[in-house]
């Protein structure tokens, strides 16, 4: 039996609805949810003494249930279908004497002005506004005009809708421009089998007298999980907020039915500020054999560790899920702008929401475990935040690592999942004569002054590889002695500081385009200048171009990020690897020198182009991939005569490390230069 119209326009036809209800018979047709779902919202806006008009009533039981539940009795139902009006008069006429059903077109109603306190519309606007053609818009404008006419000032137009973008935008713009208060409620569905995947919304338009001039619009949304409305700045933000909830419902519907082939990511935002509070990744492990207790788990990533490979990459999260042994693992990253009340508070806050992302086949009333590293949520303290004209917003924060050490990090908020610079903190040293803390006293926290920067420790693996590349310098038997080093890109300063401190005869020139970064490095990362370390605040492109075209540097190091996030290469900026500029870099290198480049490129074609250009300029090119990261360190030499086999590189690395490990000078025992060069290969 065909109940759907041949074209969307038939939704406005009385003939179509007569045929529809004759074919359907006495069975109620409930557009967009049943009374139990709508009742909590309707109770807020319909009072027992209100006179209520239901437009496009159909044969829905909504009016009857409102009457029977005592919500209100003075209800007038209208519809353009004679068949359904006669059907409903027969069904309710004798049992509900104060409720009436009238054959009437809502575009031309016979009621006097200001006759009702409430106009209720369940799906009628959606059925009428099937497109944005001029005749359709004219009908909708007439519908809104009639609703406005028959409503009293202070009355409410309650429109139950699926909130398609064009429908929502039309309704919100029309009534807000008329000076009405607009509030959107998301309806919480209690049915196990919903008729629609997308959520149902109720537009609440409260009539006010239009004030001449530009009165502020009041636009609000009430998500299903809270009663307190959230104020929206404009129509676009309100429509976007509804769209976000529709996407979330669609996502939940999809992942509740089938396992995720790809990892799904979404943000849960703070109710007050609207800023992201949690970032969730849904990770399914098809290899895990399901049992009653391993369907689903939640993993809270400790604060400050969301950038680590295990938590911050797809492959890392995949390994985490497999090792945890759950069919679906939901990882949760915490945001630095937010405050959290420990693991218990997070569990209480998330327990209802995460169950909406449960996998198919999860047993009823199954307890879902919350997991973390060491059972806590980690420690993060923001030490400094500011805005640079060149780098944008940034923060300096201290975080606890996976051992007893604390680390200081520089994060550019335009790319908040990338650690720009990192340094390990030394444990605070008790003052002489200071008594030890009693065991029952509170342990020191990051709220106390931290220790100094550990300048002997290179946190970044790519920095370790860049320093190890200095083994390529010098003749067959020589090791670096007096060095002239140019570093482009300061960051926190750990790379030039290490070269300065451990190569005692090195003279280091650093070029940094952003003066704010020099302040950050000096104030927060223990960086300082002296007669062997000088910083030049300049564009690296200009600085290299102005140098005399004569060999003067033993090594040039590029560790400079790109400000343009639209390019598939985040380090260095594309201009730094163009052939004319690379030829200038080659011209300032000594014949046995080495150009060291930190390359971070996710675009395979762009990367191959960069490598081809480097090979054109430098006859000898080594590469060293950084495991678990996108970084690749390239060692470029201006002469092919400096080529060395792996055995020679290993021997030179051991000799150099021995020279750097001097008595009384701290050395990170995990930093083995020969290991850093094992994976080096010639391109």
UniProtKB/TrEMBL annotation:
The keyword Methyltransferase applies. InterPro entries: Lys/N-term_MeTrsfase_sf, Methyltranfer_dom, SAM-dependent_MTases_sf. GO terms for molecular function: methyltransferase activity. Residues 434-444 have a biased composition (Basic residues). Belongs to the methyltransferase superfamily. Residues 429-449 are annotated as: Disordered. This is eEF1A lysine and N-terminal methyltransferase. The gene is Mettl13. GO terms for cellular component: cytoplasm. It comes from the Eukaryota.
């Amino acid at each position: 039996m065909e109940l759907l119209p041949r074209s969307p326009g038939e939704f406005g036809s009385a003939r179509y609805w007569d045929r529809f209800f004759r074919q359907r018979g006495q069975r109620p047709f409930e557009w967009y949810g049943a009374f139990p779902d709508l009742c909590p919202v309707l109770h807020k806006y319909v009072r027992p003494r209100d006179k209520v008009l239901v437009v496009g009533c159909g044969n829905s039981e909504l009016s009857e249930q409102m009457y029977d539940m005592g919500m209100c009795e003075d209800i007038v139902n209208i519809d353009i279908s004679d068949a359904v009006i006669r059907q409903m008069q027969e069904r309710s006429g004798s049992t509900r004497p104060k409720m009436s059903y009238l054959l009437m077109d809502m575009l031309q109603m016979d009621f006097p002005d200001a006759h009702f306190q409430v106009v209720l519309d369940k799906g009628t606007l959606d059925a009428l506004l099937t497109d944005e053609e001029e005749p359709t818009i004219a009908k909708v404008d007439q519908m809104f005009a009639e609703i406005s006419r028959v409503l009293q000032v202070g009355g409410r137009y309650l429109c139950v809708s699926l909130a398609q973008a064009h429908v929502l935008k039309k309704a919100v713009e029309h009534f807000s421009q008329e000076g009405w208060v607009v509030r959107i409620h998301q309806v919480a569905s209690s049915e196990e089998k919903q008729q629609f995947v997308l959520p149902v919304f109720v537009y609440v338009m409260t009539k006010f007298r239009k004030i001449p001039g530009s009165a502020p619009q009041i636009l609000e949304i009430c998500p299903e999980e809270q009663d307190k409305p959230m104020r929206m700045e404009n129509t676009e933000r309100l429509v976007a907020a509804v769209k976000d909830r529709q996407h979330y419902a669609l996502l939940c519907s999809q992942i509740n039915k089938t396992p995720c082939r790809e990892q799904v990511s979404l943000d849960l935002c703070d109710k007050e500020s609207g800023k992201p509070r949690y970032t969730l990744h849904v990770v399914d492990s098809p290899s895990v054999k399901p049992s009653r207790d391993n369907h689903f788990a939640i993993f809270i990533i400790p604060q400050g560790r969301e950038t680590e490979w295990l938590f911050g990459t797809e492959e890392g999260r995949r390994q985490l899920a497999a090792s945890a042994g759950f069919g679906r693992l939901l990882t949760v990253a915490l945001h630095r702008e937010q405050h959290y009340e420990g693991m218990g508070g997070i569990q209480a806050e998330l327990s209802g929401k995460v169950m909406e992302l449960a996998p198919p086949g999860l047993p009823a009333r199954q307890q879902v475990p919350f997991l973390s590293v060491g059972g806590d949520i980690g420690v993060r303290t923001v030490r400094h935040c500011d805005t640079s004209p060149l780098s944008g917003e940034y923060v300096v924060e201290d975080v606890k690592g996976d051992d007893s050490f604390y680390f200081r990090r520089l994060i550019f908020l335009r790319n908040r999942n990338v650690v720009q610079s990192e340094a390990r903190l030394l444990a605070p040293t008790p003052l002489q004569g200071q008594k030890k803390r009693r065991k029952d006293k509170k342990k020191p926290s990051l709220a106390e002054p931290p220790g100094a920067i550990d300048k002997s420790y290179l946190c970044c693996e790519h920095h370790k590889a860049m320093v190890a590349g200095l083994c390529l310098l010098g003749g067959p038997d020589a090791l670096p002695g007096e060095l002239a080093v140019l570093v482009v890109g300061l960051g926190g300063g750990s790379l030039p500081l290490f070269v300065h401190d451990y190569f005692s005869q090195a003279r280091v020139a650093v070029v940094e385009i952003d003066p704010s970064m020099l302040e950050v490095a000096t104030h927060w990362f223990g960086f300082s200048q002296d007669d062997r370390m000088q910083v030049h605040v300049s564009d690296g492109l200009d600085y290299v171009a102005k140098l005399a075209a004569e060999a003067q540097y033993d090594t040039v190091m590029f560790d400079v990020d790109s400000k343009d996030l639209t390019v598939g290469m985040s380090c260095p900026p594309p201009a730094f690897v163009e052939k004319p500029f690379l030829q200038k870099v080659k011209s300032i290198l000594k014949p046995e020198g080495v150009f060291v480049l930190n390359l971070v490129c996710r675009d395979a074609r762009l990367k191959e182009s960069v490598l081809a250009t480097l090979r054109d300029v430098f006859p000898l090119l080594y590469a060293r991939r950084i495991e678990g990261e996108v970084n690749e360190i390239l060692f470029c030499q201006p002469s092919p005569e400096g080529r060395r086999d792996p055995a020679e590189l290993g021997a030179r690395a051991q000799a150099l490390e021995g020279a750097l490990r001097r008595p009384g000078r701290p050395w990170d025992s995990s930093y083995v230069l020969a290991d850093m060069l094992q994976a080096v290969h010639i391109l």
